[in-house]
Amino acid sequence: MVGEIHDHDAVQALLQRVLGMVRGGQAEALYTARDRALTRFANSRIHQNVTDHDASLRLRLIDGERTGVASTNRLDDDGLQRVIGQAAAIRDHAAPNPDQAALPGRNGQPDPSLGYVAATAKADPELRAAGARSVIAAGEAADLEVSGAFSTETSTLAVANTSGVAGAHTTTQAKLVTVMMGEGGASGYAQSTRTDVGAIDASGVGEDAADKALRSADAGELEPGEYDVILEEYAVATILEYLSFDGFSALAVQEGRSFMELGERVMGDNVTIWDDGNDPRGLPSTIDYEGVSKRRVDLVTDGVATGVVHDAATARRAGTTSTGHALPSPNTWGPISWNLFMAPGSSSKDAMLANTERGIWVTRFHYVNIVHPKKAILTGMTKDGTFLIENGRIVRPLRNFRFTQSIPEAFSRIEAISSQTRLVEAEYSGITARVPALQIRGFNFTGVTGREEGG
Amino acid sequence: MNDLIQRALDAAERAGAAYADIRIVEREAESLTVKNGALEAANSDHSEGFGVRVLVDGAWGFSASALLEPEEIERVTRQAAAVARASGLAGGDPVVLDETPPQVGRYVTPHQEDPFSVSLDEKLRLLFEADAAMARVDGINVRQSSIECGRERKTFASTQGARVEQEIVEAGAGIDATAVNASESQSRSYPNSSGGQVVTGGFEAVRAMDLAGHAEQIAEEAVALLDAPQCPSGRMTLIIDASQVGLQIHESCGHPIELDRVLGYEASFAGTSFLTLDKLGALQYGSELVNIDADATAPGGLGTFGYDDEGVPAQNVPIVSAGRFVGYLTSRETAPVIGRSSMGSSRAWSWDRIPLIRMTNINLRPGDAGSLEDLVADTRDGLLISTNKSWSIDDRRLNFQFGTQIGWLIRNGKRTQMVRNPTYTGITPQFWGSCDAICGPDEYVIWGVPNCGKGEPIQTGHVGHGAAPARFRDVQVGVGRW
User: Fold this and answer.
1) Statement: residue B472 has pLDDT above 70
2) B397: phi > 0 → left, psi -120 to 50 → alpha, else beta; which?
3) Domain of A26, in residue numbers
4) With contact defined as beta carbons under 8 Å apart, do B429 and B395 qualify?
5) Please, which residues 397-436 of chain A have a Cβ atom closer than 8 Å to chain B?
6) In total, how many domains does chain A have?
7) Are A176 and A195 in contact (CB under 8 A)?
8) Contact B268/A444, CB-based, under 8 Å?
9) For residues A399 and A384, what is the distance between their CA atoms, to the nearest angstrom?
10) Of residues A96, A97, A178, nearest to B268 (C-beta)
């Protein structure tokens, strides 16, 4: 399969061959493949430069109420026979699960051109090194220490099952991220994520981060407490990422741990959030891990909880159909909202700044986590540019704060939403969000980063 | 195998590499989850492949592939060399490795009962017994029990003559009970949250957990938490159970002692470290009771192995001695920066990942405060908390905030009122400086953390933390508005 791991005809032939080798019951063959390259730089040199190439098959066998799953990346005949044997052995010994959902049937075909750019698939290490050099040059010009990563990736997801599903989608992604640091605790960040590597402006990314770093040097103290905030798009995207983990999944609602109460007002009436894997303004992913074509799901509309994402299992329990948000099934995590959008408003960051009498400007958040799922209380730190606003102006940089805040409460106090949006990929999960900047009245900061002296 | 290895090393030298190594890795994993009386997931996973790392003109290149065939090994090695040349385009100082002598050896995790030889029926029996025990408690909405088994076989060889073979065996299990009402969702877990406890070793470790024997208690506690009062807010004496002390070590000691973080290699992703080079040997990291070691040789620890993924033998080195910061986790590339040789903590998640500095077992040595109940009895007023629920720490590993599943107020040396949603926050050196008691060896457990994320592309590390319950004075608890 090397050289063909993203060829849809070859992949479907493989999946159909596997399904043909299975004896008895239902079967689902899930194929994932990737060619990934990543160039990391720090201290103004490339310290890590890697490529990898893999394709794997995950086979789900169902006989009545019994299910077995096995996976392998050995796709020769021996490997296929072995994975079939392992999945069958597990299935035959598994305890029955009457709640097991049936395999999805044939559904819509995704647009194969969505989310794929050949230039990204062909990107070479010299291109990534050139991008790294541009960022490093921007940082060195400002006398900053530069670190970052430039990655390019081609991924294929294909699913076939004995109920007629036969879908595949190949996507590309390029991402350039940098953190620049300097004297006086200066720190700045910028990220650009695109399907087309040619759309990444490496010099621009470097200049953005350098500008933020230079402005954040010699940060001062401010007592933690409740302040009005302007959250840049990076910070807003991280919040949406954690709302996705916390509450946008049908399983979270079914298990009573989500803040989403469908049909009820959960945020302010100026908040609209949805998921759409087919929107080219995001990073499209058009089918899920059960081969179901993704549908747009309106999650919060004018502040009211209007929907959650489903896989086949949660849909069966809810008496509805999958929205195309399954992870590899069966699993205990449930479906996930992966392609998030938040509706823009009519403001701008400059206007928000001018309208803030006293507040804090937050560039991004770091290491966020869920403190209380039903109240959607999150905690995390500000990072790479936190500033005090007074009388409509940024007056000085601040040491990083810890926030502990219920997000539905905060999103009920949004004063202004920018008309411009930015596409951001989450650091750890890969969830993407196209979001505006927000001005929020009253955001709870519960601590400030410390100094390193011992106690 | 020998021929494939030699092809890679020869191809690397032909491509101009001053140094090269290859890892050939095969991973197997089995996971079983019973949820609400039914088998929710039963998976068997297998992955194999190889990764080649080369140094050309002082710069690194790495390439990996799943196809273990001669032509592919040569192609991937040439690709690694091409990537290394591209690395050199950005300039910078050349990489210099330490003088660790090349090792030849073999290591197999000591174990009694091969987890893959235990039948599916037997594993399911243990899980369904635990599930049934939780089901006997009224008011539980979600019950979950899981078993995870893993085995990794890997061969490492380098152009310097190293040749190491290892077989790492892992086993783990855990149970969770969740109760829900209109405003709260409360979970209790045993032996730990996030999947339970995982060790290197055989299935005997899972049997010793006695999941069913603890199931009713955690289910009853989850239900009771729904009506428990909210944890109070303020500064007070805090006793932390062993598993949460383990995660406290992980976040506030394990990560900041990674020398690659200190040198800025992770600045754009996971962050840096407050333990800068000038702090080595100088900073009072904690109170004099605090002694922390990085011990890759500790029996059963999830960070235990024979050799790291640069072929350096497993070691036990001091990190904090009587409260003073004295050591880092290092690799062959980074150790010379502090004038030392690698202490053997360069580890890769799998064949398709490059080795990074990872924790081994970062262990807080037990103290002399006896049992947990002895420590409670020795505490006039305070809060006892158990089992992690949430975690967050800043990019330099100074400002942390943790939440746990359950807490109890301590009054006059007795555990009294149960409280829900406990949280605590602090600054790393001040917090460890406030440690005034650590329980004894009978309370000491090496907790496995099987989900430690680091690096790009992200790698999931398996690490361990030996810990006993410990007491900290004047800690801010009950953070935020409830």
Assistant:
1) yes
2) left
3) 8-207
4) no
5) 400, 402, 404-406, 427-428
6) 2
7) no
8) no
9) 10
10) A178
**pLDDT at A99 (0 to 100):** 79
Cα-based angle B243, B247, B253 (whole degrees, multiple of 5):
135
pLDDT of residue A451: 60
The pLDDT value given to residue B482 = 84
Q: Would the pLDDT of A423 be above 80?
A: yes
Question: For residue range B437-448, what is the model confidence (pLDDT) as tens digits?
Answer: 999 999 999 999
Q: Residue A1: pLDDT above 60? A: no
In whole angstroms, give the CA distance from residue B271 to residue B454. Answer: 10
For chain A, the average pLDDT equals: 95
CB B155 within 8 A of CB B23: yes
Do A52 and A91 lie in one domain? The reply is yes
Q: Does A145 touch chain B (CB under 8 A)?
A: yes
What domains can be seen in chain B, in order of their start residue?
Answer: 2-227 (3.30.2290.10), 234-477 (no CATH)
Of B33, B121, B453, which is closest to A332 when you measure between CB atoms?
B33
Q: Is A215 inside a domain boundary?
A: no
ipTM (interface pTM): 0.94
Mean pLDDT of A420-432: 94
Cβ contact, residue pair B395, A369, below 8 Å: no
Q: Which of residues 8-67 of B touch A (CB under 8 A)?
A: 33-36, 38-49, 51, 59-67
- Whether the pLDDT of residue B122 is over 90: the answer is yes
Cβ contacts of A149 on chain B, cutoff 8 Å: 268-269, 456
Summarised one tens digit per residue, pLDDT across range B394-421 is 999 999 999 999 999 999 999 999 999 9
Closest to B53 measured CA to CA, from B342, B344, B311, B336: B311
Among A155, A184, A207, residue at a domain's last position: A207
Are B269 and A446 in contact (CB < 8 Å)?
Answer: no
Taking only residues 13 to 32 of chain A, the set having a beta carbon closer than 8 angstroms to any beta carbon of chain B reads none
Percent of chain B surpassing pLDDT 70: 100
Copy the structure tokens of residue A173: 């992604």
pLDDT digits (tens, 9 = 90+) for A370-383: 999 999 999 999 99
B95 CA: distance to closest CA in chain A (Å):
9
Determine, for residues B457 and A383 on separate chains, whether the beta-carbon distance falls below 8 Å: no
**Radius of gyration of chain A measured on its C-alpha atoms:** 24
